[in-house]
## 1
Amino acid sequence: MCDSLEEKFGAWELFEEVWERVVDTATEKEATKNLPNILCEALKLFREEITTTHLTECRLKLKLSPDVKDNVKADHARAMGNALFHPKVKRYIEAVKRYNESISFSAKGSEARALAYANRSAVCYELHQYQECLDNIRLARESNYPARLIEKLNKRETAAEDALEDVARGKKNTGGSKANVDAPKKLSLSYEGSHLVPHAANCLELQTSDEFGRFVATTRDLKAGDVVIIEKPYCTLLLDVYRLIRCDFCHQERIFNLIPCEGCTVAMYCSEECMTQAYQRYHLYECGVIRDMWRIFTKIPMMAMRTVTTGIASFNHNLRDMRKHLQDMDESKVDGFTMDWTKATPREVYETVHVLITNYEKRDPKDLAHRTFFAIIIYDLLVERSKLGPECNSDPDISSLIMELLLKHLQTTPMNMHSQYYMDYQPEEKLYEIMNYASACFPLLSMINHSCAPNLTRVTLHDGRCAVVISRPISKGGQLYDNYGQHHSLMPVRERRAKLLTQYKFLCNCEACVNNYPLYNELPSISDFRHGLIDAADIHAQLVLHQPKIAAELLPKLSQYLNNIGHQYPRYEVSSCQELFLRSFQILFMETSNSAQYWKYCNP
């Protein structure tokens, strides 16, 4: 990962400061009354004062400022890249990140940008990425590369062209490992998709009850290894620490190919097509605010804004049309499992996001105040620096719509945001780590309830879709259960319940909490006489080689074992087998970072 944007005084710290002052004022007014009244009075005062007295003060403390290109910063980033590229250092990937940062800061057509592209081409050449080397040389020339240095660029271009010819004749390879050049395996549903929802198995349906609210159940028996949903996200958000590595729109790892947005110093894209798509879907509103947003906020407010901006685009950027549509919509009739996705318009897809639960009535005054505070800051930035400004300033109804949407999705996002992952594999150490590169909103996945003993797992596929894979048998009529980050094998019941109550506003009464399931190392074992054993240590040793062929051979064996013993959950062997099964599945279908293949060139 690369460095995140510079950290300064954040919005949360400022909120705490303002809230404490407002509560002191409310306490004086409510000195003879109880705490709930004090908090309610504080919320009332907060809403009044934050839009008047404190707003200017807040802006000053947050040091909000327009995002502009800066060739001085670009030169500094390029100098850092040069130091990392030095023959005695050879930290090539880190060098490219700094060159990408230089490209993002530099003005269009400037020498600073041309030099950064040229330096990136030099790294590509050293890493045997000859086509990328030539692409960067072209970009350097298009950016007015200085004539005084052109001879060096010409020599590198000739060398890269010769090397490509050698590759074509089989005399030289480009340094990529076989695992990285193989096409990713395709995944499909284990059962026929619904005729209305082709990305979900036709045995799934959305049900409701007083105990569970909305939940997803199956109308047939499901086996471990069954794939029942493969869903494309409604909107996504690339985490800022990957902005110099991955495309802001498609999120593919394209470190040698990134080109900058000309309006900000944050977003970079792998192609003009992705840049255009991003601008049309969300970036036209976010371009002027995204740097400040990442500097003062975490990913949750960022994702809330992305949901709103994508929602506006779903209505062809017609805010009046959007307002009327949402006013006329009957939320009780919106059901993603019965909607015809084969004909669904973008606005109908947004409906499935708009109706996600907010738990507004369960939030305390301070929680509502902090989300209101964030909504006001985001609204103020968007009105000041985007095309939303003229409409909000001239039409109070549109202004109210934007504020309402921001506040709504600041409540829905923490409960319905899903992470997207890739595998960071380190072959020398035979280690891998699951890394979160983006956040996403999946309307169908958001309908699946939590359990501290889940019966499914989510896997991010190469193209950003999410596959829901059954991890232990589910009987006909049974409910599907996801895990929201608190698993009984890793966390005691009291701690899990406290975390879930804080973030999701419910007291968990799943099977693991009610029965107080043990932690992983304390789980009981099965009867090996009845069910046999698998050699978990041997399978793990095979999987650390990270070979798709091995994973493909092991996956059906692990699935069968889970189906034989899964009904005895919780057992040590079941949990162990689930981990091995998941690892096999990830090797086959999840993206693995490409950066590992370049390590052999990075030893000084």
Note: Residues 1-8, 176-181 have pLDDT under 50 and may be disordered.
## 2
Amino acid sequence: MSAQLPGVRPAQTALSHDDPREIGGYRLHGRLGAGGMGVVYLAYTPGGRPIALKAVREEFAADPEFRERFAQEVASARRIHGLFTAQVVDSGADARTPWLATAYVPAPTLQQVVRRHGPLPVRTVLLLVGGIAEALQGIHGAGVVHRDLKPANVLMASDGPRVIDFGIARAADAAALTGTGLRIGTAAFMAPEQALGRQVTAATDVFALGALAAYVAGGAAPFGDGPESAALYRVVHEQPDLSRVPAELRDLLARCLAKRPEDRPTTAQLMAAVHAHPVVGGRPEFADGWLPHQVGDDIASHDAGRAPTHAQATVTAAATLPPSARPGSEAVLPAGGPGPYPGGEGRAERSPRARRSRRRGGRTPLVLLLVAGALLAGGGAVYYLDGVPAGDAESPGAGRTPTARSPLTAQPSSSSSRPAGTAAAPYVPGYTNVELTSPDTSYEFDLRAGKVVPEDTAVWYLARSADGFVLSEESDAFIADGDELAVADCVHGIETQPVTALPFADLAGERPFCVRSADQKEIVIARLIEAPEDGSVTIALDRHHREG
């Protein structure tokens, strides 16, 4: 087994029975994430360096046009060398399962940073613009247009940003794939010419950088969220809303967001503007103090391997096909989904019709009685986080930093039936911040695998009706009172305030909720990103599980 670098402990989940054990000569050690186009694995080079290896799904690997474009884009991507990009280190475009390996960057995404800490200061935003512009300059110099620059595709390392997934989205722009009706790119950060299906150029990425910077500075995308069609209309026909952006940035970002490509600055002009900005003071350096203190601490925890998030877990292997205008939204393949999830013990006794009728009707009264009986019998456990009893911790949403990023230890309460001195296995992180979109009610969220599958496919699932989510049999759920939800809060909430219904109306504003599996070994913390009237539903998921 390859040695692992000291201090680098990438978050991962165990390989499933269907996962390969080796790709391209690299032994796989676990899953880092999954998306609509493939699976991201943790692997190591012979010298022990961690890498993110992205393997394309079989249905795309079987498409000749996809393979041809994938090979072209990978060849171009390998020519990109820059301090602000995640370097491509190896690839297998001609392999039976096409794959791409990039450097592992232990850092959160820019989207995650803004969600956790809110808009960033002007100087931080300017330095990010300069660093990303330098990354784009290197990408464009290799003849590549990124096409999907967004906060989820920028990693926030302590020494500056890293742009990932550059150019790979073009591989998905083949007739056999676009026939599903999905659009390449993310609507909230898409330039007008891209939204209209016209030729994309380096100026297209500059527009996306302007939209990204406006999101980071103001906390909202300049063309709004909501249904993709509405965001695309605003991108093409309306001016950006920069009212939340500090005045010191508005002129520069407005130039980036010009409707005509020729009216936008080049990447070189952007870097020069950052250098000349009085807030930067002629020192565009990613030195100590370039980040707010709390953000720096958050990023340092990733560098030290203490946080579960591997930023590239949200990266769709080989490409992303986002159907949503939500920043960083990841698309799913609405047809030809995978077969039943392996290891579905006991599923033979449940017909699809029986499962569908159960989930549409919610949980049975017997399950509620069993839960109540367990609580009365004192069979629950009180979970502690960083030494603070869950019952004594601040209530969710009180402005604290999300504590789900820290390791959890479980300790029995005084009323627990567990023998004194013993404790349940701690919950450890699995996939993190995976955003998925279900096209309609014939699809469900596979909570264990972190993907969207056809209805009646997953063992542990979150189904959906027209106005809410439907739990799988014998799962538990809890809806947070505030804006944050840690694993300890989830466990405490399920034991004290369980819910059996998850209506979209109660989950508005990305109010977090959690679902626990019937065996209590897995927990998913989720947020409803959007549920537009067209029937599609987008959620963000974090999975935690007990080992052993």
Note: The two ends are 21 Å apart (CA to CA).
